[in-house]
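User: I'm writing a short report section on ligand binding and want a predicted complex to refer to. Could you take this sequence and zinc ion and write out the structure as tokens? A short remark afterwards would be nice.
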Amino acid sequence: MEKNMLFSQVKGLVHGGDYNPDQWLDRPDILAEDIRLMKKAGINSATLGVFSWSAYEPEEGEFHFEWLEEMIENLYQNGIYTVLSTPSGARPAWLDAAYPEAMRVDNRGLRNHHGVRHNHCMSSPKYREKAGIIDRKLAERFGSHPGVIMYHISNELGGECYCPLCVKRFQEYLAEKYDHDIEKLNRAWWTSFWSHHYNRFEQIEPPFQNGETSVMGLNMEWKRFTTWNMNDFMKHEINTLRSVTPDIPVTTNFMRLFDGLDYRKMALELDAVSWDNYPFFHNDWETLADTLADTAFQHTVMRGYKREKPFMVMESAPGLVNWHKYNKLKRPGVHKLACLQAIACGSDTVQYFQWRKGRGSYEQYHGAVVDHIGTDDTRVFREVAEVGEAMKKLAPVAGTLVKTRAAMLFDWDNRMAIRDARALSDETKQYEDTCIGIWKQFLKLGVEMDIIGSDEDLSRYDLVVAPMLYMLQKGAAENLKRFVERGGQLLATYFTGYVDTEQLCFLGGFPGDGLSELFGIVSEEIDTYYPSDRNHIRLEDGSLWEVVDYAEVLRVKDAKVLAEYTEDYYADTAALTCKEYGRGKAYYMAARVKPKEMMPLFEKMLADAQIPVKKLPEGVELHVRTGEEGAYAFYLNGSPETVEIADVEGVDMLTGAGIQGTLTLPGYGVAVLALAKQ
Ligand code: GLA
Ligand code: ZN
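Assistant: Sure. The structure tokens for the complex follow:
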């Protein structure tokens, strides 16, 4: 058996989703039908209780778990495991009425009224106490049930609270961080500017909307504090559960590139990473293949939080969603493609929101495996059942990992710092899109690129791309130097190494902290273009790449100039450089060009890193998962056209056919090939 299995009980992949029987307790006929339909759809897990607090505890101190007990047991008897949620994502009315401190305060200082969800105060001792009581009861009552394979903490944790309790905690957090020395904080936050000097930690307010928002250090620390405090709240729940049942793994569901919390820090507290995947399928701004490639990036970000294990897709829509601007239907075949893409990228689960559509309220029209019609002869049900079948066949993939020698550095603090910097243009900074754009080019070459933090160990990689690494984490510069020194291929771009973790600019030339020595250049100025401005850079072979948005003017120290600008006062000065450093090479790309144009550079770097490339037809993705017992290649056709892929060999796990030579995939088709053991 693979050592990296997420669950000891489930032998293969997990196919399941959010199940809300508490909405149907007066309809035993429907609950019975659910079990029959789940089996028919190949479902082997159900996530229970995500928002069930008022069903668990309808009045303070009055607990009702009978329905849950019956449900978990019944599911288990039918081969369906339970992912058991803590209900802290939404509060019953009695709780807010009795303990208003549980309700969050917004960035104008206004306390929320009771309602909706996801809006509790993370500091409130009362809320922690109440959540702790219910969590303990759940663990005590259900933790030993063989059907319970995992705890799901709360739901999509996020948001900020500006209540007096949180403000006080923030001040304490700052005092701790700055060694109770207010002058240390003043120096770090450069508060001599605009007379913003603080005398005492108690004077510091969070960045209220109508308050202090001009101190970058404060804004960043508030973000970091919010992660810290959310983590602290989450750990309170986790510790409560673990104190009763230490062996049941815990997760919480993340949201794509949500930037309100530093997920990398939260993942450290979890046994497995899971996320909710809701792509904008068939939108009017990109091809489906592009939407899928973007989703592959998101999967890879999640995979990067815990690379030694598969991750989970905790939620995805079986049909449409109800909260996009336009809630378009997923076209036939795309469901299977998207589900198997998740597996291809390293997930061991495909779980849905939601199993059955409710009759009323906010999500009554959100896609579900079972629609209001209630039958199993719908297109969506059939497509889900087809995925269920496929996932059974793919059981050997469970526990295998995606392994690669290429990585992209992508940092949360850096995202925040770039967004907050009063520089460049807010319209075109586009840090995330820049990373995604470059990452997609490597995908086109059949190269998986891990997405990791800039201070993480790079020793397993031979190629690293670090777009717009504006903020340098402590030790990041040294890390990069070591990487290149021992033979790595590194690419950095404009807007690299301007500030340290306090967002104080490095003196003596960018990129700072010793990186200008690594790249052999200093960036003297950065030009921000208006949207219609253009420049070009000319490469040694005469080809021209178009420059948009940003161009840095470089002083070259001891790097080789590979391309120069063609226009403006900096025409004929360096735009792309390379310095050989130790056994590797450090490239610096001073201007923004379309990632597609940089393909020759990426190919050269890959060749130097001896990373094999497989050129794929337009719209096709290749992902490989590897384990002790074999490797599995996923070919996904995101285009509506039939494609042919040459030089392929293996056994198609979905059809059983042996493939040697050309693999033909219909539009939106997918094949998973078990590769011969090397
Ligand atoms: C989120 C939530 C779910 C549900 C879905 C709808 O992911 O976690 O409870 O609201 O969105 O898409
Ligand atoms: Zn609060």
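A remark for your report: The longest strand covers residues 544-556. The pocket of zinc ion (ligand 2) is lined by residues 105, 121, 123, 161, 163, 165-166 (CB under 6 Å).
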